[in-house]
Each structure stands twice: as C-alpha cells, then as structure tokens.
C-alpha cells in the first residue's frame, strides 16, 4: 500500500508560526507548535477520521536551505477513494487557532453521504 501525504503547513494559515532560522534554536518550538496543530486537527476532524479507514494526520519533516522544518500532513492510502476526501479536508482546515480549537467539523466526507443514501 502506498501512501500520499497532503501538506497542511505548520500552523493555521492566518496565524503567525515558528520560522526556520540559521541558528537552529527554533526546532523545539516548531515541533511543539506542529504537535498542537495536529492535535487540533485530530479533534476538529474527529467525525471524519472515525468514518474513514486510511486517513490520519502526521508530522512531516522537510529540509530547507537554512535547516529542517516541520509541518502537519494528512496521509491517506494512495489507492483509496479516501484520498479525494483528504484533498477536500485541505480546503476545510480552520485558518485560526481559535476556530481550530473551539469547533468540531460535522463533516464526515463522501462516505457519510453514501451511507445516508443507502
């Protein structure tokens, strides 16, 4: 089974985030920020994750000219229809910490619609 991972960034899009600096003293703060972001994503999208079998959020490690950086990713089975749902999730990710940490998405993806139609 091959996996596809969609990059979601290191923090909500409309928020400041920890940046890579040449001195390298950002690593622990960036890891903590990405862990907070992933936990928020898991809580926000809990109904979706419960309704799917191959989706999960993960920390990604990327290498930059100035050093390593981390960001959240949404991983799916590349051969599954759930990858289409993952791309939809990318468009629905909350853009602020407040929204991410105070709301739960009622959306369960296409699978919910298929089950309701049956």
Number of strands: 3
Radius of gyration: 15 Å
Residues in helix, %: 40-55%
Number of helices: 5
> Beta fraction of the residues?
15-25%
Topology pattern, helix = H, strand = E: EHHEEHHH
- Tally of distinct domains: 1
Which stretches are low in confidence, meaning pLDDT under 50 for 5 or more residues running? Answer: 111-118
Q: Give the overall shape.
A: globular
Main sheet attributes: strand count, strand direction, barrel closure? 3 strands, antiparallel
Report on the structure:
This protein is an alpha+beta fold and 118 residues long. The chain has one domain. It contains five helices and three strands. Strands 1-3-2 form a three-stranded antiparallel β-sheet. Strand 2 and strand 3 form a beta hairpin. It starts with a strand and ends with a helix. The C terminus is likely disordered.
Features:
118 residues, alpha+beta, globular, disordered C terminus
What is the structure about, briefly put?
It contains 5 helices and 3 strands. By secondary structure, it is of the alpha+beta class. It has a 3-stranded antiparallel β-sheet.
Describe how the helices and strands are arranged.
Elements: E1 3-9, H1 27-44, H2 46-51, E2 56-64, E3 67-77, H3 82-92, H4 97-102, H5 110-117
Antiparallel strand pairs: 1-3, 2-3
